[in-house]
Recover the amino acids of this structure.
């Protein structure tokens, strides 16, 4: 990138989406080379100050509603990252500077293989630069749009990864509040990465009242003006799973009010091609009463996940004792096996 290109870098929003996907709304304003750059950003080097001169800036990776993200290489380690560039003037004009501050504070402290890493940030007179993990396979939304929908095997893999990442967030008292395909990227092994924390909030105890997120993914408690908590992410995961399998969200309708009514009534309809086990899991996630939704920690052992997710993935995400009991229980032990679990769908909500 030339110096003129750098000078004319477009303003960038907190989203990396390039696909023209659905907009969020609100009623208020590994190791190896990675470890080298990561170490310099950890407490062992707390005074490290980054600048644009530390990076070789490459091609534009994507452009969103307000700006762009660039491929970059850290000069000392040659480690590849993505740099999101935000123009201060644009942030103040849109009154989202407080939202960006919260996004940085939250994402910079999260460490999970299915959450895009934020290595650090720096700024100059005109812009703020976020140093992010590079996800070489790009936006999940593009893959979904190109394919129309995902297979049950692929969907199960993604839902397994999402349940783990969201469970980690909730243990850290972080609510994401804007789960949707546009906010997900694919890493080097096509593993899913939650990439945008623009609407996330750290809420150790209090319930929130802000209406935020994307229309098709809003839970009943939000559209009815009630307080909400971590269970909004469980609802969104159910909507996401439906969209993975069908190709569109479950409560789509003509106009916002019609969509609101379908969400409020949980007017859930399944095409015939969605398997009974998949329908069962979605129905357990899309429950109007928030606390009656299936807890995230129970998703990996749901029969649909056990039948469809690759065994190597189950071994990564299930506790070792649970995995051993499911797949290696000796005959006559009385313990459930994966085969047995996958042939009987449990009833009831939780």
């Amino acid at each position: 990138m030339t110096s003129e290109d750098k000078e004319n870098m477009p303003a960038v929003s907190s989203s990396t989406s390039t696909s023209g996907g659905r907009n969020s709304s609100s009623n208020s304003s590994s190791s190896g080379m990675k470890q080298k750059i990561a170490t310099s950003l950890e407490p062992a080097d707390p005074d490290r100050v980054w600048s644009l001169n530390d990076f070789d800036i490459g091609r534009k990776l994507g452009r969103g509603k307000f700006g762009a993200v660039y491929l970059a290489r850290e000069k000392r380690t040659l480690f590849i990252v993505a740099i999101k560039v935000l123009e201060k003037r644009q942030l103040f004009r849109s009154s989202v500077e407080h939202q960006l501050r919260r996004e940085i504070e939250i994402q910079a402290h999260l460490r999970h293989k299915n959450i895009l890493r934020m290595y650090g940030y720096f700024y100059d007179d005109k812009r703020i630069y976020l140093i992010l993990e590079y996800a070489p396979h790009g936006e999940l939304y593009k893959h979904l749009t190109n394919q129309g929908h995902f297979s049950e095997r692929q969907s199960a893999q993604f839902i397994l990864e999402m349940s783990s990442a969201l469970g980690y967030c909730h243990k850290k008292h972080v609510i994401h509040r804007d789960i949707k395909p546009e906010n997900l990227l694919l890493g080097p092994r096509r593993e899913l990465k939650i990439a945008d924390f623009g609407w996330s909030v750290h809420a150790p105890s209090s319930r929130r009242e802000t209406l935020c997120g994307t229309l098709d993914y809003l839970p009943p408690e939000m559209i009815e003006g009630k307080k909400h908590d971590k269970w909004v992410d469980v609802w969104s995961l159910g909507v996401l799973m439906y969209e993975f399998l069908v190709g569109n969200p479950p409560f789509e309708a003509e106009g916002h009010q019609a969509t609101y009514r379908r969400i409020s009534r949980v007017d859930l309809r399944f095409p015939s091609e969605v398997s009974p086990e998949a329908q069962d899991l979605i129905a357990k996630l899309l429950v109007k009463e928030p606390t009656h939704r299936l807890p995230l920690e129970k998703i990996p052992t749901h029969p649909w996940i056990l039948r469809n997710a690759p065994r190597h993935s189950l071994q990564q995400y299930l506790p070792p004792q649970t995995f051993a009991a499911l797949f290696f229980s000796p005959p006559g032990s009385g313990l459930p096996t994966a085969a047995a679990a996958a042939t009987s769908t449990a009833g009831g909500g939780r």
Notes: DSSP finds 14 helices and eleven strands in the chain. The first strand starts at residue 25 and ends at 26. The first helix runs from residue 3 to 7. The mean pLDDT is 82.
